[in-house]
Write a structure and sequence with these properties.
Strand content: 15-25%
Bound molecules: guanosine-5'-monophosphate
Radius of gyration: 17 Å
GO molecular function: hydrolase activity; ribonuclease T2 activity; RNA binding; RNA endonuclease activity
Distance between the termini: 53 Å
Structural class: alpha+beta
GO cellular component, one term: extracellular region
Organism: Nelumbo nucifera
Largest sheet: 5 strands, antiparallel
Protein name: Intracellular ribonuclease LX-like
Family: Belongs to the RNase T2 family.
Length: about 210
């Protein structure tokens, strides 16, 4: 009988706050299409193991073929922009994400399925709206890490992982939000293990 092996336990669906990518010492570059929306954008969908370790670069013979995802490109430019320097149209970032992470879930999702599922996940939970509804705004203010976690847990139904980085003045700030997703890449689940957060107890939510 045909048996499809599944070589990972769950996905991390990771979104980044662009303001916190850009205001660091390293700075950032906007794509040629202009400044991205002032909203969380996708970093990636990462196969993971329940013990916190993860597979990577699982298939060197499967580079991203942009013709496979041409129908998704305009959505990806909006929802999955690359902010690294030099300025890029995203294809380099998406290719990196596919090679490093996407190739490790090829047993369940081909290239088109991987990117389509990731885009669809973003529409299932409006992180910025959930935070705004709790009075947590991207205005350069400081908020307790617990208030951010609590708001997102209430709004999504599952506890997120929160990752911080530091701005130019050394302030701890909200950088990435991790949600856990089942192996079909369609439903949020309780995280089997949360990523380490590197956050202070009060963190900045910078504007973008
Ligand atoms: P950093 O060192 O900036 O936290 O992470 C660098 C890269 O390692 C990430 O962009 C991602 O590709 C990978 N990575 C970091 N943490 C995790 C994790 O917990 N799970 C998975 N699957 N990848 C991770
Ligand atoms: P990871 O390996 O951690 O999944 O992805 C990070 C890699 O993607 C780095 O090499 C980084 O330079 C590149 N990259 C390109 N654009 C972006 C972006 O907008 N955000 C992040 N976090 N990484 C980006
Ligand atoms: P990577 O190994 O993925 O190139 O980069 C490691 C980390 O450095 C990423 O997780 C990301 O946070 C940061 N990084 C990489 N390139 C850039 C960049 O152009 N600007 C900023 N602000 N951070 C970057």
């Amino acid at each position: 009988a045909l048996c499809v092996s599944q070589d990972f336990d769950f996905f991390y669906f990771v979104q980044q706050w662009p303001g916190s990518y850009c205001d660091t010492k390293q700075s950032c570059c906007y794509p040629a299409t202009g400044k991205p929306a002032s909203d969380f954008s996708i970093h990636g969908l990462w196969p993971n193991y329940n013990d916190g370790s993860y597979p990577s670069n699982c298939d060197p013979n499967s580079p991203l073929d942009s013709s496979e995802i041409s129908d998704l490109t305009s959505r990806m430019q909006r929802s999955w922009p690359s902010l690294s320097c030099p300025s890029s149209d995203g294809l380099k970032f998406w290719s990196h994400e596919w090679q490093k992470h996407g190739t490790c879930s090829e047993s369940v999702l081909d290239q088109h399925g991987y990117f389509q599922s990731t885009l669809n996940l973003q529409n299932k939970a409006n992180l910025l709206q959930i935070l705004r509804n709790a009075g947590i705004q991207p205005n350069g203010g400081f908020y307790s890490l617990d208030s951010i976690k609590d708001a997102l847990t209430q709004g999504i139904g599952y506890t997120p992982g929160i990752e911080c980085n530091v701005d130019k003045s050394g302030n701890s700030q909200l950088y990435q939000i991790y949600l856990c997703v089942d192996t079909s890449a369609s439903n949020f689940i309780q995280c089997p293990i949360l990523p380490s957060s590197r956050c202070s107890s009060r963190i900045e939510f910078p504007s973008f």
